[in-house]
Amino acid sequence: MTQSTQLWSIVLAAGEGTRLQGLTRDETGRVVPKQFYRIDGDTSMLRWTLDRVGTVVPGHRIVPIVADQHRRWWGSELAAVPQANIVVQPRNRGTVAGILLPLLNLTLRDPDATVLVTPSDHHMDDTRAFRRMVAQAEETIAEEPERIVLIGVPARRPDPELGWLVPVPRAPESRAPWESSYGSVRYDVAEFVEKPDIRLAARLQREGAFWNTGIVVARAQALLGLIRSALAEVHDRFLTAVEEGLFDDPNVVLDLYDEIGSFDFCRDVLEPSAGHLTLLTLPDESWVDLGTEGRIQEWRGRRAHRAGLGENARWRSGSVATVPSGAPRSVPLEPSRIAADRPHA
C-alpha cells in the first residue's frame, strides 16, 4: 500500500443550468443558475454540496470553480472559502475545462494530492454513507494509485440523461466483487456509457448497470494523466498557461477559452477510458441528481413520503415502518451486448 496523501475537493459550480431555467427563478422572475437556487426554500444546492464535502475535506482544501458572470450569487455563497481557492472561469467550455483548471491549480500547491470531484446539483440523504464511500475510495486508490474511482448507484429507471457504468462480468466460479461491511460493492468497469438512447438505457437497467453520480475520487496526477491521454492539446495548453502564470492576464484567458473548444468530461474522457475506472456503489435511496424538473419532482415526492412516514409514526404504538431499499443487487452484463444496442452512426 502506498503512502496516504491529503484529500482535496473540486466543486463544479460554473454551469448555467439551462434545463431548469423555467423553475429556478427569483421573486423578480430573473433566472438563477440551479446551483445557487434554494430549491427547498432555504438552502442552495451549492451550500448542500459544500456542507457535505466539508464532512470529509477541511475548508482550506475545498476548491470551487465558478463562472465570472455568476459573481452576484457565488460572492456570498463562498464567503467562507479562501479567496485563493476560488477558481473563476470566463466562459463555459464544458466539464473538461471545469475540472482541468482547478486541478492544475491545486497540484501546483500539492503535487501529491488526492482529489474528490463533485457536481453541485445533487442531493444526498445519507451523509454517513458518503463519508464512508470517500474513505473506501481513498483506500482503493492507496492500493492502486492509477485507478480513477467513480461513485455509482443502482438505476431506478432507464434514464437517457445520465451516464451509466457497466461492471466487468465475472465467471460464476470467480471470486465475488469486493463488498464492504456497510453494503458498498466495488467493481472494475467494463464500459462507461454516457447518455444512451432510451432503448439502450432500458437494456442497461435491466441487466444491472449503475447510474454514474458524477462523483470522482482519484490521485490528482492520475486524473491529469487520464485527461492528457484523451485530450493532449487541451491539457498541455492549460498546463502551460497555469505554470507560466498566464491566467493572471484576462485577455490571455479569454483567448485560450475562445480557442480550445468545448469538451465533456464524461463523454470525451471517461467513455474511452473504462479500463482505468473502478466503481464503488452507494445505497439506492441516498442520492438524486437534481438536474431536471422531473428529478426535482421525484425528490420532492420522496421527501414528502418520508415526512408522511415520520408523521404517521407518532400515532403508532409499535415500531416505525421502514422504506424498502428498492433495487435488487445488480448483475453485471456483457459489454458485447451493450455494443449491439448502440445506435448506428
Question: How far do the termini sit from each other?
Answer: 44 Å
Estimated helix fraction: 25-40%
Which class of secondary structure composition applies to the elements?
alpha/beta
SS strand fraction: 15-25%
CATH superfamily: Spore Coat Polysaccharide Biosynthesis Protein SpsA, Chain A
CATH architecture: Alpha-Beta Complex
State the CATH class: Alpha Beta
Number of domains: 1
Do you know the CATH topology?
Answer: Spore Coat Polysaccharide Biosynthesis Protein SpsA, Chain A
The SSE string, one letter per element, is EHEHEHEEHEEEEHEHHHHEEHH
Shape, please?
globular
Instruction: Report the count of strand segments.
Output: 12
Strand arrangement in the largest pleated sheet: 6-10-7-9-11
Region (Disordered): 319-345
Protein name: NTP transferase domain-containing protein
Domain Nucleotidyl transferase: 9-292
GO biological process, one term: GDP-mannose biosynthetic process
Report a brief summary of the structure.
This protein is of the alpha/beta class. Helices cover 37% and strands 19% of the residues. Helix 3 packs across helix 7.
Explain what you see.
- This protein has 345 residues and is an alpha/beta fold.
- It has a single domain, classed as Spore Coat Polysaccharide Biosynthesis Protein SpsA, Chain A.
- It has helices at 45-53, 71-77, 94-109, 127-143, 198-206, 220-230, 232-243, 250-260, 265-270, 293-313, 335-341, and strands at residues 7-13, 62-67, 87-89, 114-119, 122-124, 148-154, 163-167, 178-179, 185-194, 210-219, 277-281, 287-289.
- A five-stranded mixed β-barrel has the order 6-10-7-9-11. It has a two-stranded antiparallel ribbon with strand order 5-12.
- Strand 8 and strand 9 form a beta hairpin.
